[in-house]
Amino acid sequence: MIETLNIKGTEDSPEVVMDFQKGFIRISGTSWLEDAYGFYEPLYQWVSEYSKTPQKVTEIEFGYTYFNTSSAKQIAKLVTLISSLKQSSEVHVKWFYEKDDSEMLKSGQKYSELLNLGFEFVETEFEAEPEDEDEGVYKIIKK
After folding, report:
1. Where are the alpha helices (DSSP H) in 1-143?
2. Does 131 score more than 70 pLDDT?
3. Judging by beta carbons within 10 Å of its beta carbon (0-12, 13-18, 19+), is residue 44 exposed, middle or buried?
4. Which of 6, 57, 66, 138 could be bridged to 126 by S-S, CB 3.0 to 4.6 A?
5. Which CATH number covers residue 70?
6. CA-CA distance, 124 to 70, in Å (whole number)?
7. Number of structural domains, the chain?
8. Can you give the residue range of the structural domain that contains 60?
9. 35-43: long-range contacts at Cβ-Cβ below 8 A with a sequence spacing of 24 or more?
């Protein structure tokens, strides 16, 4: 069985939750990484392993507040792997973006169109936990 992957977000890296039992993936926060490939490699491995025996329904949430160019390339690779799940799982993708952040909305639309993977776009607010505020770690507030 695949282990749940939990990575706590930092000022430069997103929070990651990948839960096999629930068929759930969430990546949220900032992705401003010098070594984006190194950070995202375990995520690729997890999705590749998960795709061998996925749940009937897979729920995916992206909630980026910012990502740099090197992260954008790795996110595209990750979304490509996720899109291959359509063959064996019903995939639901939510792309959360902060109100008035048209660039993040456009990024999600671009990923959705390029990979022919329908996203649900959700305007939301992001909030820092008091203990994480100085680090720039944000959580999605679902409306």
Report:
1. 36-50, 69-83, 102-114
2. no
3. middle
4. 138
5. 3.30.750
6. 25
7. 1
8. 5-141
9. 36/68, 36/70, 36/71, 36/73, 36/74, 37/70, 37/74, 39/13, 39/74, 40/71, 40/74, 40/75, 40/77, 40/78, 42/5, 42/7, 43/5, 43/16, 43/18, 43/78
Measured in degrees and rounded to the nearest 5, phi and psi for residue 83 equal -65, -25
* Helices of type H across 61-140: 69-83, 102-114
* Per-residue pLDDT tens digits for 9-39: 999 999 999 999 999 999 999 999 999 999 9
Residues 122 and 108 sit within 8 Å (Cβ to Cβ): no
User: Three-state SS for 23?
Assistant: coil
Task: Find tokens 């950070």 and name the residue.
Answer: 39
> Given the DSSP bridges, would you call strands 119-128 and 138-141 parallel, antiparallel or unpaired?
antiparallel
CA 15 to chain CA mean position, Å: 9
**Which residue do the tokens 């979304």 mark?**
79
β 15-19/119-128 pair status: unpaired
Helix (H, G, I), strand (E, B) or coil at 85: helix
Taking the C-alpha atoms of residue 73 and residue 63, their distance in angstroms, rounded to an integer, is 16
- Cα 101 to its chain centre, rounded Å, is 17
